[in-house]
Amino acid sequence: MELVKKNPKLKLRETRFGVVSFLCALLTLAYLNIFLLSLNSFNPFANLFLQIIPTTGIITGFVSFFRVGYRKTFTWWALGLYAFMFICVVFIGFIEFATYTKP
Fold this sequence. Notes:
It is a single chain. The protein starts with 15 loop residues before the first helix and ends with a helix. The protein is mainly alpha-helical. The chain is elongated, with a radius of gyration of 20 Å. The relative contact order is 0.19. Helix 1 runs antiparallel to helix 2 (46-64). It is built from 3 helices and no strands.
């Protein structure tokens, strides 16, 4: 009777770009929630957290798709979070426009 050795499956790691993209998405989501809850004053970090970090996260997310042999779970989660934030901002804009229709 022959013993058949099973080939162990290779465990694929996440891309570092995907993890960075996910962390940028989490930071942006947290700041967006804080920004929407406290609209009483202008915050000097708004430019950083609402423009620079999301742009960096989206670019690193798309760069991680070119990595071969790695999982891209964090990348998909990050891009999903960015899509969710975009849909929420557009929805809030439509609700605000419907509520305050004066120009």
